[in-house]
Amino acid sequence: MYDASRHCVCFWGYDNAREIAFLVDDSMLTKLNPGADSGESSLLATFDRNRDRILGLARTLYNGGPQNRYTIS
Prior knowledge:
Elements: E1 2-3, E2 8-14, E3 19-25, H1 26-32, H2 40-49, H3 51-62, E4 69-72
Parallel strand pairs: 3-4
Antiparallel strand pairs: 1-2, 2-3
Protein name: DUF1488 domain-containing protein
Organism: Paraburkholderia solisilvae
């Protein structure tokens, strides 16, 4: 889901005990696809194309940590 007010794509993960929110900011998505424009559909397409990489970053950030929200930037 794209959140225009926060300028990020949001997704959620679960660890069998709680829900964890992840925010991937526009600048990170632009780094992953430098030639793309900054519109919502382009950013969501970049997220989709780089989903495995983003999920890997999310796993590394979370690693059973105490936070309920993480930003990938």
